[in-house]
Amino acid sequence: MLKKKAMLIDLTLCVGCNACQAACKETNHMPEKEEKSLSPTTYTALDEYEGVFVRRMCQHCDDPTCASVCPVGAFTKMPEGPVVYDVDKCIGCRYCMQACPFQVPRYEWSSTYPRIQKCVMCHERLAKGLPTACSEACPTGATKFGDRDELLTEAYTRITGEPDKYVQKIYGEKEVGGTSILYISSVPFENLGFRTTLQTTPLPQLTWNALSKIPGVVSVGGAMLFGIWWITNRREDVKEYEQKNNTNHPTNGKS
Amino acid sequence: MKKLLTTFGFWKVTAVAIMLAGLYSTYVRFFHGLGAATNLSDQFPWGIWIGFDVLCGVGLAAGGFTLAAIVYIFNLKRFEPIIRPTILTAFLGYVLVVVGLMFDLGRPLQIWHAIIMWNPRSVMFEVAWCVMLYTTVLALEFSPVILEKFKMTKTIKMVKRISIPLIIVGVLLSTLHQSSLGSLYLIVPEKMYPLWYSAYMPVFFYTSAIAAGCGMIIFESFISSRAFKRGLEMDLLNEIARVCVMMLGVYAVMKFVDLTDRKMLSLLTVPRFETYMYWLEVIIGVIVPFVMFTQRKIRRNPNGLFIGAALVVVGFIMNRMNIAITGMEGWSGTSYVPSWMEFTITMMIVTIGFMAFYFIAKYFPVFTHEEHHDDGEDTHAAIAWKRDIEAVSQIRN
Questions:
Q1: Which of B147, B214, B305, B339 is the most buried (most CB within 10 A)?
Q2: Least CA distance to B40: which residue of chain A?
Q3: Comparing C-alpha atoms, which of B332, B243, B199 is closest to residue B63?
């Protein structure tokens, strides 16, 4: 049985060396140039808020919005945790970008045959039993790779162990149903550009509420339309029949 | 220049200009990519091609299923004179939506993937199937017009035999499709400004589309009557306006109750861009035409009817653009104004639509019923009245 993997990012340990980005780019065969924000050639980037560095990347949701909205099922949540993208299925509707609550997917706008680009949590390395490239490269242990359950326990131990240092929250534990990237921090998350108002139930539930009504609409609607047609049509038939009878037997009309 | 305009006519020159600009933009779009042609970005991935071409294109085609239901399901055969142009409008609307999608999709040649690669959890998947199926249904509904021209009576009979199931399927597909465009946005509760975001967006999309579809029937009738120098079915359009006003009323009440329910009424007075756009949309598209169409006098006046219908259509377009663009800008942190290439491509698509309608209506039996000029507004009613009197006297004899 595969255990769900995750990464714990402790913002208090990050020194902003950007080794994660460099390792990521090497693993994913991307141009080496350092980048300040996510792009089609950058799966992870650092934001700085007054000395605090925040890693931005795909959160690998447990019930990914992107996977639910994609009309052709180009996104898959693997049992090990990564949310991966199959470019051969993609039609380029960009609904995933529109829907992602973390605004992560990037698009190759300058290409005539564009792809969606985002972190794939080194799923090929994971299959070989290796950790993600970024966590391996991290010199301070700010990004730690492991089983999600264990990392959650560790995060709890850390924040409850030093309540004066840490904000008592693990970002990603419950957001949109939980994600595979977990953050802990000494600065309130809302001050670091995190969306803290996200609901705790997975977003796909919202569209499913509507989609699940389709069978009802079709069956009830279909029966109703047929019923109305039958009645109105019948009325016409009766009228025609009566008129015909009346002309055939003119005496009937007099009564 | 003036000479040129008078020789070829203002509209022809405009159409040619739009087509040329649109063709250039098409070249840029397909040979240099979406980035070169549009102002779309990672922060703002959907622009007017979705907001206008798709959302409005589908919505304004709603007259098709509304009138089909009126004529064939409710059996109100007196509306038959306007059914063909309405179905044509709807069919062209859908074809143009597909054309618009070919521009918007990053990998348009993969559009067929939705047929074999299923994801029933996706609203977009539902949308894709509705577009495919309903475009086919509309083509079949319209096919007798083409078949008549070529006198293929046997095939016509075959189509007529399945016409009632076809109409029912068409109404169901439209119901699903119109509402599903609203469902598309259910997934962005955080991103959309709360004046627009509601769990009832699918219902709002459906009702407003029927109102706008009615508006389009009236609008299209007026344009055709001018282009083809034919009379107006004033009495029929009047009744359509009554359906329209009813839907507008239902829509307005639902929207109000929804805002109250969500405790968002106070947003209506917050001085910000979204508020102004919301009011503009509601006043132009709902309040003014509602008041106009409830007045019998205005409804019976051709100009009043036309202006009211045009307002409904414009207001509807504003609503969809607000949902797709205005309501999404705040959260995205960027502003989006379509590039001139996005504009010209949209305009080109609309122009193609108008031209296609003109040529089909000119060379095929779209307007088949005897034209009657509207000196007597109640021509149809009068004929029916006369028929009734005759029938009664016949019975008496």
A1: B214
A2: A109
A3: B243
Burial of B101 per CB tally in 10 Å (0-12, 13-18, 19+): buried
Name the residue ranges covered by the structural domains of chain A: 5-208, 213-254
Look at the block and give the residue holding tokens 């015909």. Answer: A244
Give yes or no for a contact between B243 and B212, defined as CB atoms under 8 angstroms apart.
Answer: no
Q: Which residue's entry shows tokens 């069978």? A: A215
- Note the pTM of the prediction, 2 decimals: 0.89
Cβ-based contacts of A93 with chain B (< 8 Å)? 104-106, 124
The residues spanned by each domain of chain B are 22-30+43-362
Beta bridge partners of A179: A61
Is B124 close to A217, i.e. CB distance below 8 A?
no
pLDDT per residue as tens, chain B (397 positions): 566 656 668 888 899 999 999 999 999 999 999 999 999 999 999 999 999 999 999 999 999 999 999 999 998 888 988 899 999 999 999 999 999 999 999 999 999 999 999 999 999 999 999 999 999 999 999 998 889 888 888 888 888 888 888 999 999 999 999 999 999 999 999 899 999 999 999 999 999 999 999 999 999 999 888 888 888 888 899 999 999 999 999 999 999 999 999 999 999 999 999 999 999 999 999 999 999 999 989 988 999 999 999 999 999 999 999 999 999 998 888 899 999 999 999 999 999 999 999 999 888 988 876 544 444 444 454 455 445 555 555 554 4
Domain A5-208 class?
alpha beta
Residues of A whose CB is below 8 A from B172: 217-218, 221-222, 225
Q: Does A103 touch chain B (CB under 8 A)?
A: yes
CATH fourth-level superfamily of B22-30+43-362:
Formate dehydrogenase/DMSO reductase domain (1.20.1630.10)
Amino acid identity of residue B153, one-letter, is T
- Given CB atoms, is B188 within the 8 Å cutoff of chain A? yes
